[in-house]
């Protein structure tokens, strides 16, 4: 899961497993595997950085650390 921000400033959590692709036009559009689209305030590079960090960390944390 990655934390992102809608254009109106509202923060939300996205399941990074669902990201199909990310585009900048000029806002950042995230297309999900369901073909739904989300527009976020972060740059495509920041979305990619958070997604890569998520994938790197998902195997490191023990299951019982969720709090």
Describe the structure using short key phrases.
single chain, 3-stranded antiparallel β-sheet, 1 helix, two-stranded antiparallel sheet, 67 residues, globular, alpha+beta
Q: Ends: how far apart?
A: 14 Å
Tally of distinct domains: 1
How many helices? The count is 1
| Class derived from helix and strand content | alpha+beta
Mean pLDDT: 91
Shape: globular
List how many beta strands DSSP finds.
Answer: 5
Order of helices and strands: EEEEEH
Low-confidence stretches: none
Q: Rg to the nearest angstrom?
A: 13 Å
| Portion in beta strands | 25-35%
Largest sheet strand order = 3-4-5
The largest sheet is: 3 strands, antiparallel
Task: Give the helix proportion (percent range).
Answer: 10-25%
